[in-house]
Amino acid sequence: MVSLTFHGGVNEIGGNKILLEDGDTRIWFDFGKSFTMGEDYYTSWLQPRRSNGLKDYFEFSLLPRLPGLYAEDKLTHTELKHEEPSYDGVFISHAHADHVTHIQFIDPEIPIYTGAGTKLFMEAMEKTSSYANYGNHDYRNFRTGDKIRLDSLEIEPIHVDHSIPAAYGYIIHTPEGCVVYTGDLRAHGPRHEMTQEFLEAAEYKEPIAMITEGTRMARRGKRRHLSESQVLNGVVKICQEADTNGKTVFYTHSPRDMDRLRTFSISAEGCHRKLVVNTRTAYLLNRLVEDQRLNLPDPLRDDTIKVYYKKKKSGTYSEKDYYKWERDFLEAIVTPEDLKNSPKEYIVNLSFYDLAELIDIRPDAGSPFIYSMSEPFGEDDLEEKVMHNWLTHFSLRYHQLHASGHLSRKELAEAIETVNPSKLFPVHTENPEMFGELHKNSTPPVLGKQYTLT
Length: 454
Ligand SMILES: [Zn+2]
Known about the structure:
Blueprint: E1 2-6, E2 17-22, E3 25-31, H1 55-58, E4 89-91, H2 97-100, E5 112-115, H3 116-128, E6 139-142, E7 148-150, E8 153-160, E9 167-174, E10 177-181, H4 192-204, E11 209-213, H5 228-244, E12 249-253, H6 258-270, E13 274-277, H7 279-288, E14 305-308, H8 324-327, E15 333-334, H9 336-341, E16 346-349, H10 358-361, E17 368-372, H11 382-393, E18 397-400, H12 409-419, E19 423-427, E20 450-452
Parallel strand pairs: 3-4, 4-5, 5-6, 10-11, 11-19, 12-16, 12-17, 13-14, 13-16, 14-15, 17-18
Antiparallel strand pairs: 1-2, 1-20, 2-3, 7-8, 8-9, 9-10
Zinc ion binds near residues 96, 162 and 184.
């Protein structure tokens, strides 16, 4: 008997935790953190206490209370007793927090399967952020073309295009037929042919069930969406304008979106400017150059990319002020003075948490600031208000240019029609009931309910 149980990603965008069982074989697809995780109880700096393991999560049922799943030390303060692992693996679709973060609680004896590139992203995150800690695990890497056999199941990961490299969808061969899991994917990105290959492979298997993401399934698209090449054209236009009036260009984007980074890098080159990134991005890029297909600049080798260091204790950019992993890039340093002296030479990444650097940089009034992320969800988004206050204070001109990482409603309809599964389970969406318009046998999953596929 093959079944699916959805322990996350239900009625919300993110937090995917999908259990597939066939008799004693039990595997998970993603084990992510919900974006809205317990926001009725936890917000801003009020968060589950790190030293308390799962206790603060169980209090509000933010993670399923299942025996044989979690690491012994994470259960210490809870009523759930540690048991020998009764799960055979966790398959991660990609390295976004809402798909991977909560593997930190998983028993280290349960293997974690990831794409090779996904593992690299996770390692870079752990190195450069004090918040990322996925725990010690029995990691097993795969690439497209690999098939992983676990008892009665065979799991086939296939690359898809998403707003982070090394994203995968899955085809799971079961004794009852194939189950397809999309992970997150898009059809309009620079690698759209990968998504197409996945959907075609899925179609060929005549699946009994498809678990699809539905981020952009909504009555009205609330946000403006462009393709990546439209974003590129927009950025180039802003740079050209800034050239004529001698201004620095500032931008912010999701730090793991390497397609967007490439877009800014290409724009910078086209306008004979240097791309300025923070030390975390520099470290990530330096790791990612191993993968030549990504075609990204390397701050240790390419003169087209520079690194902004925040001034620390010594006030002199002394090596000792920085973490070891940050020090390598000091030769490519750019300071606020450099930006002040040659505004036309740079296009500078400035994230929300870097805004205070503007006090040192003091850009010319009218310098463009490109917000290259999805617009905020709520109208009363506090961070957005604060960001706009900073931009107004320094008289920066706001532009919004973004291409989504997800299928549009129309593309979702086409993908489902192509794959043509017997049953459909929408996850990672706020509107699962709307999928009834796209498929005659669509089931909006109920959290924790088991669905038999026979
Ligand atoms: Zn994602």
